[in-house]
Write a sequence for this structure.
């Protein structure tokens, strides 16, 4: 009987979900930033800085998720 390992499949699925979540999160940040800058153009520098920092935090979480998926794949 052949043993089927589902680790790589699960890791790929998990990495895909991480990428989907990151895309949605950064998209929401972008939409909010553009709407805010359209409402208050004088605050565009502060809004842009905040949006970039928030996007970096989301990317950090994505990196952790991808590392966990690759670790799950190797086991």
């Amino acid at each position: 009987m052949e043993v089927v390992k589902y680790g790589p499949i699960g890791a790929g699925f998990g990495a895909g979900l991480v990428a989907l979540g990151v895309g949605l999160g950064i998209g929401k940040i972008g939409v909010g930033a553009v709407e805010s800058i359209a409402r208050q153009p004088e605050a565009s520098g502060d809004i842009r800085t905040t949006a970039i920092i928030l996007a970096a935090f989301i990317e950090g979480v994505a990196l952790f998720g991808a590392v966990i998926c690759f670790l799950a794949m190797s086991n």
